[in-house]
Amino acid sequence: MLIFTILSRVSDSVNVIQIQTKNPSNQVITHEVSGTGKVEGSQEVAVFVLENLQVEQALVHQGQTVKKGDTLLKLSRESMEDAARDLEDKIKTLEGQAKDLESQNKVNSQKRASEQAWADNSYDLAVQSGNVSVDNAREELQAAQQRLDEFYREKEAKTSGDDLSGFTDGEEDFTDGETAIAQEDDSTAEAALQSDLRARQEALNEAIAERNQTLASAGKAVADASAPEASDSSLENVRRELENARADLEKVTALQNTDGIIASPTDGVIKNLAVQTGDLTGQTAVAVLYSSDGALRMTGTISKEDMKYVSAGAEVKLTDNNNNDISGVTVENITENDEDNDIRDLSILLPDDSMAIGQSGDFSISKDSGPYSCCVPLSALYSEDGKDYVYVTDTENTVLGTVMTARKLEVTVQDQNQTTAALGEGSLSTDQAVVVQADRELKDGCRVRISENG
């Protein structure tokens, strides 16, 4: 029985999973962002050449170091001569157009001034004529009113003088007949005078209305003549185009005087060459240089997730392609990548004379977080179905005696880097042994034992 027990324990010890453990510790989590970059100049200089000139020969290439005055391109003599002739013809045409437009503008200005004077004069005449007509009609109305008033005065005088109380009865019929005739004549005359007065009043009203209408029409003519003209930039456009053509001709002439040589305006490195031998020049720069006068920068890329560990002004550890450490290096800025939204472009400022344009180097940027009171090696952390967990050791009594087991314990991860995970407060106690390595797959409740090599 003793022999079987010993053999059973030996067999059991061989089958038990061997582990290594470690207690949680208080420490800082260091995040490191690294990559490779290339040195560029911070000051760019663009070289422009007139459009549609043929490149006879391109004498430099991208990345080449050049000195101020070095030849970059040589242009075709024939293309420069053709360009000069075309520009001369264009200048003559534009000069003629400008002259015609200036003449037309002068004629239009004189015509407009004449129309303005005519409208003003017509308005003055309309005012004078309308006032005369109204004044005449008002005088005639006043005269008609005076005639009617005179009639009423005479009638009243006649009525007050016709006292027939002293006549005999034999004369009554005769007197009544004369009175009736006189009253009928007075009524006819009164009606005629009143009708004439009404006619004169209507004539005055018509004169006033006609004057107002005439003045309104004349006033509109004045307003139309005084209205601002619609803007016309034809002459200005032609003059501007003419000025540009003359400037282009000067540029072509200058190129002809230098036999079509395009020289570097500064010491530097060719960043980009937009044309090659046989190409025609366009609107964009034929060449862009990194000027050696400006500061140097290194450009590289980092992932979008790493942005939280990198900020402008952060110190950078930099090693050039000769394994030389460069000190005094900082992050200049971080920008979005034009082609990939998950990548960010990193710009790193370099000290003077530390590296040369075109060189490459390895950079790393570190950022500490914490300290955290419960940190374990990353090898102790497992994830399943979106949940994180670790294994801790427990003991239990069996027929074989007291044995060690692994217990699965769900945890919350606060932070982590490539080697260490910081767990949330209360996830573990500092005296709990966490399984950091096992020679086989662990399961909740499985038997384990400390490795003799651990």
Describe this structure in words.
This protein is an alpha+beta fold. 39% of the residues lie in helices and 32% in strands. It contains four helices and 21 strands. The chain has helices at residues 2-15, 77-161, 172-226, 234-257, and strands at 17-22, 25-41, 44-47, 55-58, 65-66, 71-75, 261-263, 268-273, 287-291, 296-303, 315-320, 325-336, 343-349, 360-377, 382-384, 387-398, 401-411, 413-416, 420-423, 434-438, 447-450. The strands form four sheets. A six-stranded mixed beta sheet has the order 15-16-17-21-1-20. A hairpin with a 4-residue loop joins strand 11 and strand 12 (325-336). Helix 2 (77-161) packs antiparallel against helix 3 and helix 2 (77-161) runs antiparallel to helix 4 (234-257). The protein is elongated.
Structural class: alpha+beta
Estimate what percentage of residues fall within beta strands.
Answer: 25-35%
Q: Which word captures the global form? A: elongated
Helix count, DSSP H or I runs of 4 or more residues: 4
Biggest pleated sheet: 6 strands, mixed
Low-confidence stretches: 164-168
Q: Strand order, biggest sheet?
A: 15-16-17-21-1-20
* C-alpha termini separation: 33 Å
Q: Helical amount among residues, as a percent range? A: 25-40%
Oligomer: single chain
Work out the radius of gyration.
55 Å
Brief descriptors of the model:
elongated, alpha+beta, 32% strand, 4 helices, six-stranded mixed beta sheet, 21 strands, 454 residues
Short description:
This protein has 454 residues and is an alpha+beta fold. The chain has four helices and 21 strands.
Strands, helices and their partners?
Layout: H1 2-15, E1 17-22, E2 25-41, E3 44-47, E4 55-58, E5 65-66, E6 71-75, H2 77-161, H3 172-226, H4 234-257, E7 261-263, E8 268-273, E9 287-291, E10 296-303, E11 315-320, E12 325-336, E13 343-349, E14 360-377, E15 382-384, E16 387-398, E17 401-411, E18 413-416, E19 420-423, E20 434-438, E21 447-450
Parallel strand pairs: 1-21
Antiparallel strand pairs: 1-20, 2-10, 2-14, 3-9, 4-6, 5-8, 6-7, 8-9, 10-13, 11-12, 11-14, 12-13, 14-19, 15-16, 16-17, 17-21, 18-19
Helix pairs in contact: 2-3, 2-4
